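hiii, so i know i said id send this last week but things got crazy w the move. better late than never?? heres the sequnce for the chain we talked about at the cafe, plus the structure i predicted for it. fair warning i was half asleep when i ran it
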Amino acid sequence: MDEALKLGRDAAPAVSPTSPGLLAGVNITSPSALVRGTAGKAALLSVRYASASPDKPVVKWQLKRDKPVTVVQSIGTEIIGNLRPDYRDRIRVLENGSLLISPLQLADEGAYEVEVSITDDTFTGEKTINLTVDIPISKPQVLVASSTVLELSEFFTLNCSHENGTKPTYTWLKDGRPLSNDSRLLLSPDQKILTITRVLMADDDVYSCLVENPISHGRSIPVKLTVYRRSSLYIILSTGGIFLLVTLVTVCACWKPSKKYG
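okay and structure toks below
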């Protein structure tokens, strides 16, 4: 928050000379039309105005909705009237007209319009800044029902899971590289779930997922998927069957019925 305040203070209002006979107006500039904020932290909607008048400006910030919501009005830095309950103790207007919001809430996201007017000026200056508010992505993990699968199985599913994070986008990686186009690889609409259809030996590899949003990203620990050939399974089962048969024959050969004494 201190850094945001410093940035706001550094951009002081400018006084512009006006030629005689010309209509004066307030000119507003902004270093950025988009501010990406983090929930719980501060965001500075930075503007700078220029005017021929030395008078304090009337500053009005609105959040654009179907019906615009007045966030704050001020004369210079002095707030006029009462703030809405959801903005109370979270809003400050700086000397250059910039708006400081702290701490941010998810509901603060939207397009903010500022109007700066000065009594001696004919025209009011306007500027719009878009604010996004997000929660950082927490460490994702790949969830699977089993780490082994049989070749030519109908499908195998991997789920990219994470606890926190808004507006997530998902990218699946195989051996650290984005998946190549393959008709057997199906993604859910949000790309959170990867399904491998008709599993092949080429699918035996390590898989991970990358989750990103406007302010953060996270990558899961790779998960090893082991694919067994059906022929290998047949040999294992056959070997196991033979071993079981030999064991049973041995047991039967060694078994003698107990004698009954009467």
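btw The first helix runs from residue 2 to 10. thought thatd interest u
miss u guys!!
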